[in-house]
Amino acid sequence: MHAAPRRHTTRLIPALIASAGLLTACGTGADSSKAEEPATKVTVNPAAGGKSVKLGSQISVQASGGKLTAVDVKDDKGTQVTGRLAGDGTSWKSDGKLLPKTTYTVKTTAKSTQGKESSATSNFTTEQADKVNKLTNTPSGGQTVGTGMPISIRFDNKIDKDKRAEIEKALKVTSEPKVEGAWGWVKDWSGDDRIDWRPKDPWPAGTKVSVKGSLGGINSGTDSGWFAKNYDWDFKIGDDRKAVIDVPSHTLTMYENDKNVGSVTGSAGSSTDPTRGGIHTVRSKNAAETMDSATIGYGDQWKLDSQWVTHLTASGTFLHSAPWNKSLGVENNSHGCFGMTTSDAKKVYDFLTIGSRVEVKGTSSTVKTDVGNGLEVWQETWPEWQKRSALR
Q: Using an 8 Å Cβ cutoff, are 68 and 109 in contact?
């Protein structure tokens, strides 16, 4: 009676052992496979830990054995660094270059070919620039200007000619509605280097304009320094207001949206100092100032107080009150300006905005005003202007 139970037990034990062995084998095999699965190898350049990374380069991220699913880059001010992920997901590159004396944090997320996700963080700091270049932009952000206004950027330091194309590529203009235009390199009246963007034709009234300069990290020249920041500003185009001066008839006529809204008479330049012809752009205005002969090459012949002064060229072509002139509307006898009564000068001053166009017709002047002598982009034809681009 005892033999039968022993036979029964002998048969069950191997079965239980075999069953446990199968469970153990399955568990061990799954853990081993997961541990051996390689993560995506992600390489960030510049490498992590750098304390004085050279300027002039971009941030790049490379993935091997998988794809990048996210790349997040910020500088030490919290500014997001934009970039482009390759179509196959294996690489990412920043849009702009590294800024001087800046710490960057690069966070990456990747997925291996077998689906394993991984993340990593990398930090590095760029070197300090020996010299920094800055710019002054016209119009300024938020300003409303006339339909003849160019975008004008004047640099603190000289721009080497072999650097112009790279700088021009970093400058972008967008508008609503879309307007055709082009950048052109100019020598400012002050002697500074300048780049202007002018529309092919005057702006449509109401246009919204955005300018972005991804200049940070670009070297402007051997002795000129690096750009230490990017630029971004917006402005708006106001009403279409312009004036036309007919020199022979001593008349200035104002137009709004091509409609005649009134005229005044005055005195343009004499036959020996004729008013410069062509289309000018109102560059600035001043409610009161002293007309000093020394500023236009006439020594100390006169100093006359004037009001409602509208500036056209940097060399001294203005629209202004001239209460001392007894020949207004009768004779052209100024030194190149268009003088008016004080009340008429105020009408013109109030009507024209910064960026409005002023066209001078019928003058005997044969002088072509240089583009840098104010905002004189309309002194050139569109084909002439396009030749100023460093990209052509």
A: yes
Q: Which residues of the chain have pLDDT under 70?
A: 1-36, 292-293, 296-297, 301-302
Could you give the count of Cα atoms lying within 13 Å of 116 in the half-sphere of its Cβ? 14
Q: pLDDT value at position 51?
A: 86
Domains by residue range for the chain, with CATH:
41-125 (2.60.40.3780), 132-238 (2.60.40.3710), 241-361 (2.40.440.10)
Q: Do 241 and 274 contact (CB within 8 A), yes or no?
A: no
Q: Which letter does DSSP use for residue 90 in this model? A: S
Sheet holding 91-94, edge to edge: 41-45, 60-64, 91-94, 83-85
Task: Write the DSSP assignment of 239-305 as a string of letters.
Answer: --EEEEEETTTTEEEEEETTEEEEEEE-B-B-SSSPPP-EEEE--EEEEEEEEEGGGGT-TTS-EEE
CA separation for the pair 360, 294 (Å, rounded): 25
Name the residue type at position 149. Answer: M
